[in-house]
Design goal:
It catalyses: fluoride(in) = fluoride(out). By secondary structure, this protein is mainly α. The chain has 5 helices and no strands.
Length: 129
């Protein structure tokens, strides 16, 4: 598949910005709520799901051939902002600490509340929800 150089640039710029925002938001939430539970990552993933819902409601679902707007915002910015790898590692850490209930709560909150946030975002944008 041949990818347009402008699309690659859009993903790179969006991903860099998303990663920086993730760091700032995650740290701010963790400092405010404490480090005993991965609140920062949860807040990032839920707000990212909400924003993805808004974006999908405005632009439509993920296109098979994304243009620069989708590539910049959905793939780059929100892809760099949200983090499955951190969520997975923090959930494993909770299990290793013997905190299975907290690990289960983190997993369920991320998956269920994340999907709910996506639906709310799509609804807010006037898209299907």
């Amino acid at each position: 598949m041949n990818i347009d150089p402008l699309t690659l640039l859009a993903v790179a710029v969006g991903g860099g910005l998303g990663g920086m925002v993730r760091l700032a938001v995650g740290n701010a939430v963790a400092q405010r709520l404490g480090a005993g539970f991965p609140w920062g990552t949860l807040a990032v993933n839920l707000s990212g799901a909400l924003l993805m819902g808004i974006l999908a409601g405005m632009l439509g679902p993920a296109p098979s051939a994304p243009g620069q707007a989708w590539s910049l915002l959905a793939i780059g910015l929100l892809g760099g902002y949200t983090t499955v790898s951190s969520f997975s590692l923090q959930t494993l850490t909770l299990v290793q600490q013997g905190r299975g209930g907290a690990a289960l709560a983190n997993g369920m909150a991320t998956l269920v509340a994340g999907f709910a946030a996506l639906l709310v975002g799509a609804w807010l944008a006037g898209g299907a929800g």
